[in-house]
Design brief:
CATH topology of the largest domain: Elongation Factor Tu (Ef-tu), domain 3
Order of helices and strands: HEEEEEEEHHEEEEEEEEEEEEEEEEE
Number of domains: 4
Largest sheet: 6 strands, antiparallel, barrel
Distance between the termini: 54 Å
Number of helices: 3
CATH superfamily of the largest domain: Efflux pump adaptor protein, beta barrel domain
Shape: elongated
Structural class: alpha+beta
Number of strands: 24
């Protein structure tokens, strides 16, 4: 009887020990699984063209002069509002004033010479009628009169040229707006064609954006565009007003302009970045837009020239899936193929993943 009790005791101890070992093994196996967070991709509407652009004034003018001289006064500062016709910059014009004085003297001399030539011509016309002057004498006097007339006209044209140049010694605003660039100060030497100030019209903003070659034929004048200006917390309905027909001077992209409604431009400033969404329009009846999805850039695995991400395999394992990527939108990237919109993928792992690695979903 004592031997039987001893045998039962040993069996019970062995069973409990085995049971404990199994639990410990399961616990260790569970702890060896990589804890992951899964997610489903964001739906991406491939029938929409998404672009990035920048807000700018619809009218901008860079002011310069066509004379050379020292800048004597700049009446505005960077960011100042200006009105049409307002004096902005004065440039020294003593040389032009001296030339104008010389031209005025030349005009007075030419006027006096023309007056005398006119009198001589009248006198010889009278003498010719009385047969007291030969035709050759009358011809010479007439030529002198025309020469004097030409000299006066030349002097007057020179004065007009001086007056036109003098206007460039006083630069005025061509329209109402703001000073967005100040490139010279008092004492600087102004030279022909060198920019001094840039003025941008206020209240008429538009967005400048670049369109890739493979999408430009799907955009047309008058198309509506949703414009999201994040820094101003605004989403506006814009209209495409300009499409550049050449990409030669814009790095292979086509520049478009999207006008913004004037009654919604409060808090918008030139230079703000904007995201633009435009519905695709195509005349190719065989062009069927394919569905694509967005996933975080951080979830993409790069191996050599391949790109992929981890999905859920059988028996709670990680499965490496190769995908084909498209455009990047902030921290999201477009998946063109390799992942369905309803298919879950691993977005984060608390450990090292590999193809076939055991995982547990958090």
């Amino acid at each position: 009887m004592g031997i039987l009790k001893g045998a039962l005791g040993l069996s019970l101890i062995a069973f409990l020990s085995c049971s404990s070992s199994q639990k410990d093994g399961l616990k260790i196996a569970s702890e060896s699984n990589v804890e992951v967070i899964i997610a489903q991709p964001l739906a991406f509407n491939s029938s929409v063209i998404n672009l990035s652009g920048q807000v700018e004034g619809s009218q901008k003018a860079t002011l310069s002069t066509r004379i050379m001289g020292l800048i004597t006064k700049v009446y505005v500062k960077l960011g100042d509002p200006v009105h049409e016709g307002q004096l902005l910059v004065s440039i020294s014009n003593q040389d032009l004033q001296a030339k104008k004085g010389q031209i005025e003297a030349s005009i007075s001399t030419a006027q006096a010479g023309l007056s005398n030539a006119r009198k001589d011509l009248d006198r010889f016309n009278l003498l010719a009628k009385q047969n007291s002057a030969t035709p050759k004498e009358l011809e010479n006097i007439t030529l002198q009169y025309k020469t004097a007339l030409s000299q006066l006209d030349a002097a007057i044209q020179m004065r007009k040229e001086i007056d036109a140049n003098l206007k460039y010694a006083r630069l005025t605003a061509p329209f109402s707006g703001n000073v967005i660039q100040k490139l010279a100060d008092v004492g600087s030497l102004a030279s022909p064609g060198t920019p001094i100030l840039t003025i941008e019209q206020i209240g008429t903003y538009q967005v400048n954006a670049s369109v890739p070659e493979n999408q430009i034929n799907q955009i047309h004048l008058g198309d509506l565009a949703a414009v999201h200006i994040e820094s101003a917390n605004k989403i506006l309905k814009g209209t495409i007003t300009q499409i550049n027909s050449s990409s030669e001077y814009s790095g292979g992209s086509y520049i478009i302009k999207v006008s913004l409604p004037q009654d919604s431009q409060k808090d918008i400033r030139s230079g703000m970045y904007a995201n633009i969404s435009i519905d695709k329009k195509t005349t190719n009846l065989g062009d069927n837009s394919t569905h694509s999805v967005l996933v975080p850039v951080s979830s993409i695995i790069h191996k050599d020239e391949l790109e992929g991400l981890y999905t859920l395999g059988n028996n709670n394992t990680a499965l490496l899936r190769w995908v084909r990527l498209g455009k990047t939108f902030g921290d999201q990237v477009e998946v063109l193929s390799g992942l369905e919109k309803s298919e879950s993928f691993i977005v984060h792992a608390n450990g090292k993943l590999y193809d076939g690695a055991p995982i547990r979903v958090k």
